Amino acid sequence: MDTEKQSLIGVLNKKRNPEVLNKEDVRSNHSLVKQSQEINSLSEFLELIAVGKAQYIPWICGFLIGYADYTELLVISVIIPYLRCHWQLSEKFEAAISLCVFGSYAAFSGIIARFSDVYGRRKLMILNSVVILAASVVAAAVDNKWVFLATRIVTGAFVGSNVSIYMAYCVEICNKEYRLLGPIFSNAGSVVVIITINLQGLLILNTIGWQWFIIIISIPLVLKILILAFAVDSPRYLLVSNRQEKLNATLHRMARLNGKDLTPYEVKITTIEDTVCQQRGAFMDIFLPQHRRNVVALSLSFFSNIFMEFGLVILLPLMLSSLYCGVTGKPPPHTCNHLTTDDFYKLTFSGIVAIVAIFICMGAMHKLGRLITIRVTSGGIAVVTIGLFFCVSGSFNFAVIMLLKFLEQADNTAMWTTAPELLPTTIRSSAVGFMNAMGKFGGVLGTTSVYLLFYQSPSALISFFFVVQVMGFISSLVLNTESKNMELEDFYDEPEKQSNT
Fold it and tell me: How far apart are CA 445 and CA 450, in angstroms?
C-alpha cells in the first residue's frame, strides 16, 4: 500500500513539475543511447564497418595467393616437355618432379599453417611468399635438374601452407554476409591460371626460354608481398592471443580504411585472458569431440575432391596431346611433345568453365547454404565419373571432362568456404591446414594412379576414380553443420566459457 502511495505521489509531482519529467526522460534516453553505442563483440564491430578497403586489400591478396598456388601446380605440366629434352630426363625423374610438388604440399601445408595460430596470419603469409619467391629465383638461376627438384619441394611446402593460412584469415576480417568472398577470390585466382599459364607457355617457352618463364610467372608473388604489407592483421587472432593494444589499433585502422567514424561509438572489445590463449595452435585440439565429426568429414571430402582435381590436371593434357588411343591404345615413344594451339584453346575453355562454376557456387551457397551445395556437387562428381567409362570405350568425350571440371571446381569452392567457418580461431589455421594436407594426399594418389594406370588399364583407373568420389559424397552426408549464418565463435571445454568474438 505504501509503495502504491509513493508511486502516486511521484506521478502527481511530475504533473505539477514538468521540468522533473523532462530531466528524468533525458537521463533515461541518454542511458539508452549510450547503451546502443557500445560495441562489445567483434561480430557487432564487423557489421558496423561493413565492407571496404579493410576487406578489399585481403581479397585482392587472396586472388594473388590462388594464382600463385595453382601456378606452381600447373607449371610442371607446361614446362616438363621442355625440360625433358633440355636435361634428357628419364621417365622416373620426370614423375619425381611432378609428385614431389604435390607430396611436399601435402606433408608440410598443415605443419607450417599451425604456426599462424601461434604467431599470426599476416606475418606467416609474408614469410611464406618470400620463401616461394626465393625458391623460384634459384630454380631459374641454377640450370640443374637436382636444384630444380629441391626448389619444387620447397615451393610445394610453402604454397600449401599459404593457402591454408589465407582461408583462415579471410573469414576473420569480415561479417558473416561477406565471408564467402575470400575463398571466391582465391579460387578465381587459381582458375585464371588455367587460362593464362598455357598462353604464357606458348609465348615465352618458344621464345626466351624456360628460365625466364619461371621468373615471369613469379611476378604475382612480389605483388602479393607488397599488398600484404598494407593489409590489416586478423582481429580475431589478436583477440585470442591477448594483445589488447594491437587489437585496438587494428580495429580503428579497419574503421578508417572503411570510412567509418567511430567517434559516436564506444568500442569495448577486450582480449581473452584465459588459459586457452596459451593453447592456441594446439594441433590435437582439432580432434576434440565438438570438432571431430566436421574435421574428419571435410578431410575426406577434400581428399576425394583434390584427387579428382589433380587427376584431371594430369589426365587432361594426356588426352589432349593425342597420347590416348582408346582401350587398346599404346603410349607413344618418349618424345618432346609441346602444347599445340588446339590444346591451348581447349585448356582455356576449361578455365572458363571453372570460372562459371565459381560464380554459380557462390549464388548457391548464398541462397541455399553450404551443406546442400557440397552434397549436390560431390554427388554430381560421383555420377558424372561414370561417364568416363564411355570415354575409354570410344572417342574422347570432351564434354564429360568439362562437366567434371565444373562440378569439381564448385565443390572445391564450397568446401574452402565452409571449412574455416566451422572451427574456432585458436585452431582455425591448423585445422584448415590439416584438411588441405589430406586433400593434397588425395591429389598425390590421383596423379600417381593416372601415371600408373592410364596406359595399362583405363577401366581400372576410372573405377578407382569412381570409388574415391563415392567416398567423398558419403562424407558430405556425414557433415551436419550449416555454417552460412553462424557467428565465428571460440569454443572451450567448459560450455559456460564464451568469448566475445
Answer: 9
Helix, strand, or coil here: 38?
strand
Write the pLDDT tens digit of every residue in 296-319: 999 999 999 988 887 777 666 555
- Give the DSSP H/E element, type plus range, for residue 39: strand 38-39
Provide the b/e sequence for 46-68 (b: ≥16 CB within 10 Å). Answer: beebebbebbebbbbbbbbbbbb
Nearest to 453 by CA among 443, 463, 444: 463
Q: Which residues contact 418 (CB under 8 A, 6 or more apart)?
A: 298, 370, 371, 374, 479, 483
Cβ pair 432, 109 in contact under 8 A: no
Query: Residue with C-alpha cell 584438411?
Result: 435
Q: State if pTM tops 0.70.
A: yes
Helix 181-200, helix 341-367: angle, nearest 10: 180
Q: In the 8-state DSSP scheme, what is residue 266?
A: E
What's the pLDDT score for residue 6? 45
Encode pLDDT of 360-417 as tens digits: 999 999 889 899 999 999 999 999 888 777 765 444 567 788 888 899 999 999 999 9
Cα separation, 94 vs 336, whole angstroms: 12
pLDDT above 80: residue 230: yes
